[in-house]
Each structure stands twice: as C-alpha cells, then as structure tokens.
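Exercise (ungraded).
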Amino acid sequence: MGFLIDSLRSAVALVVSLDPEMMEIVWVSVKVSGTSTLIAGILGIPLGFAIAFNDFRGKQILITVLNTLLALPTVVIGLFVYAFISRRGVLGMLGLLYTQKAMVIGQVILILPVVTVFTIAAVSRIDERYRKTALTLGADAWQTALAVAREARFGLVAAVVAAFGRVIAEVGISMMLGGNAKGFTRTMTTAMALEYDKGQFTLAVALGIVLLTLAFGMNLLFHFFQGRSRF
Amino acid sequence: MILYRLSGVTKVYDKRTVVDIAEMTIEAGGRYALLGPNGAGKTTLLNILAFLDRPTAGAIDFESSPVDFSRKGLQTLRRRVVMVDQHPILFTRTVAQNVAYGLKIRRIPAKERKTRVAEALERVGMTAFSSAMAHRLSGGETQRVALARALAVSPSVLLCDEPTASVDAEHQSAILRILKEINEAKGISLIFTSHDRRQAAALANETIHLNQGRPASARQENVFAAVITSGRDGRAVCRIENGPRIALPYDGVSAIPRKVRIEIDSNLLLLVGPTEGSSSENRFPGRVIQATEEKGQIRCTVDIGVWIDLSLSEATYRKISPMIGDRVSVQVPADAVRLI
C-alpha cells in the first residue's frame, strides 16, 4: 500500500513539474490521436450525413455493420493494417510500419465507424422540418447539410469527443503499428504498458493522471459549450 | 398569366395514390385555397407546388415553362417559391438571424439584408422580437416569424400549409390579414391549404376542392361516414354514425350493412320550424349552432346529432330567422344525399 502511495506522490510531482519525458509522450499521443480524430471527422461526418439523408438498398445492413465495427478490437485492426504495411505487405515499400502515420491509419479505421454512427444518430434525431425549411428558402444541398449540421452540432461534437476518447486510450494499434519507439511513437498508453512491464509505476501513474485529466477536460469543455449554446 | 399548369400529375406512396390531378391551372397573383378534409392530398400537392417533392408521374409547367426536375433545376425554382409549414420550425438562432437565412444563402449584402429583415419583421408585427431566441416564441409568434422569413426573400409564390391551424384566435386574424396584404400590396401569389371552408372563403379568391387526391367539382361539405342498411319497407336507409337515419330513394340494397361516405348537398336542405310536420320522413329536430353570411347566401349550421350545414337564400332564412341556440328542424330530401 505504501508503495502505491509513494508512486502516486512521485507521479503527482512529475505531473506538476511538467517532466520533459512525460510531456514528450503526451505530445505524441495528442498529436497522433488528434490527427486521427480530425481525419475520421472529415470522412465520418459527411459519410454519416450521406447515410442518414439518403434512402438506398442495404442501408439498414450498412448501419448494422457499422455498429458491429464499434466493437472491433484494436489488436485486430493492428494485425489487419500490419498485413498491408509490413515489408512483405502490398504497401510495404511505403515504409509506413512503426511510424506515426501507421498509427494514424489504424486509429482512423478504429474510430471512423464511431464518428459515422454517432453522426447518423445525431442527424436522424434532427427534425426533418429543418431540412425542408432550408430547401424551401433556396438552400442548395451543401447549405442544407450545413443548416442541419448546425442544429445537430451537439451530437456532432459528441461524436468527435467520443472518437478522440477512444483513440487516446487505445493501446493495441499504437503498440503493433507504432512499435513504442521513444520520442517518436511512444504514446501515453504504450508508455504505461512498458513502465508496468519494467515494474516502475511512477511515470505510468503520472501518464494515467494526465490521460484522465485530458478525458475529463474534453468532456468538461463539451458540456460548457453545450450549456453556453443553449443559454 | 398562368403560374402553374399540372397535367396528369400523380403522387404514389406505398402503392397508394395520394394525388391524382388530370388537369389544373393556377393563375399568377391570385389567392388560392386548397380545401379538403384530412387525407385529401392537400399537403402533398403543396409540397409538389413548392418543388420540395417530385410527382410520381405527370408534367408541371411553371410560368409556361416545363419544370426541370433535376437538382439544379428544382433549386432555381425554389428560390422563387417559398412554403411555410403548418407547424413551422425556426432555427435555434435569433429571430433576426432566422429571417435573414434565405437572404444570406442568396449572398445579399449585409446592409441590404438588415433592411429587408427589418421590413419583413415589421410587416408581421414582430419587430420587438428581433433579437429574441426563436425557440422561445409561442406558436403564433413562430408562425409570424416563419412568414417574415419567407417574405424576406421576396418570393413570387407563397405556399402556406394550414396557416392558422396551430395558432390562437388573435394570431389567426393577424396572419390572415398579413397574407391578404402581401398578396394585394406585393402581388405575391398565395396558395394555402385549409380544411376550414369559412377561412378559405374569407381569404381566397379561388378555391380548389380536393377529395382523395382529386379535384372535386363541388365543395366538400356535409360529408359523413355512414352505414347503409335495409329499412322495414325494404328501402335503403342510411345511418350516419352517431347521427340520424335517412331514408334513401332506392330499393334493393343488400341487408348486409355497407360502410360508405355520404355527402349531403347543403343547397337542397330545408330549414323548417321545430314542430312543423315533425313526423315527416327525413325531418330531424336540432339546434342552430351558427349562422354566417357568405357571398350572398346564409350559411346555417344545425346540430341534428351531427353538425350539418345549410346554404339558404336570405329570403328563405328570414322566414324563420332563427337565433343561435333556437330549436329548428332540418328536412333532408332523399335526393340531397349522394354516396361517395
């Protein structure tokens, strides 16, 4: 018990002192996860809109498949992407393995269904009259989508927050595709796993505190934004 | 000038034809009412006229040019035709931002936008609400802001779906006045749906009756669900649900009840004193509910178990001159009843 308390005390000191090694790991995590979330948002939000707005054969099956993909284990994605970008893979010549780009590819695959499904849910909940109103007032397809997106903004922000929360906390993809190289592909979660293996908990606990604070901060920001917007 | 010409226009949902119009023309600058009961296809037709919905079949000419149903073609037309919903929805912004929406997407400069928003709000009497959050308005205020939002873009045609259905009496009269004013002052063609014959008569200068998606030749009134049975003397008897039994002029109707809809011609009904010939066939006692003057005729509504409208000449009405609440009888000639 004393050991745990000592680790926690040292970890807090590490966080408060903004330890350079810790900050480097945090930066890599935020950079990779932020990029993944941005790309998934750019692809997933329009995709969600397209699925929600259009009626086509197999729409329900597609939504069911996307819902199933929400539960996709990170190690499966890691393995799948590895098969393509490893030296023997079809994209091996690009030299992506054990790079931040590889991590981003895997993470985008992980959270694209999250953003898409959340967007479909957010847009479907929006009253159909918003779309009709925009159209009758002369809006084109893009302007109509923007008007609906504005009404669905809380749902869309929730989609992005959920996606970021999912990637910042994942370990399988980062480990398998990033390789946990110090200062380059070492993220908060892979570093925590490594420190645990080494039996050194101080940095692991410090990173855990940062991770939780980050998640809490994101949600706090979202709720603040929601509260301000609703007056 | 002919604004719309519809030829063979149908709209089918789930194998059910909800609009079926062989020919229809609507003149520019007029005030048209699409009148009919619920499910008559009024809103669907209005959506087609607003270019928000495509017909399943048929052709539409707008200002003598065939309508191009491509996405781009429809958007061009929508910039000239605006529809206001029965229950309009406002964007979660301020009232002024809502009214400015159509102008903003047309890239109208900010200065002109501000002037036109102010004008539109003034016209509907909502200037004081300009900076209020739109979702905090009452039903009547929302309807007026929705009207202002439509008027701000200066459309050629304004389509209103049941414009007063969701507002109180005070807002109803204001909205009807505004609609009449914009038609007369700005020459905006007005087409609105209603199931209220009186409202249609008060506002429209042309009324198109719709029944089951088709234009009906006569006004649809005194329409009841009924069951046809065989009377004691073998003649057909029509029993209106929760209402009177009317003997019909023909024999040979099967004894098995048959559900129908009937229409009773208000022009053929007779208003008689409460005790006058009370044992006569098809004479039903009742109470006067309301009486209004409408285009030279007196329209009298009598409760005979169901509310029935009578269209009487002034001279006929004056013979009895019943007050509201007075007891009277209504004589229903058998030939006034028509099976739909």
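Further reading is listed at the end of the chapter. For now, observe: Chain B touches chain A at residues 50, 52, 71, 75, 78-79, 81-83, 85, 87-89, 91-92, 101-102, 105-106, 133, 149-150, 153 (CB under 8 Å). The radius of gyration of chain B is 24 Å.
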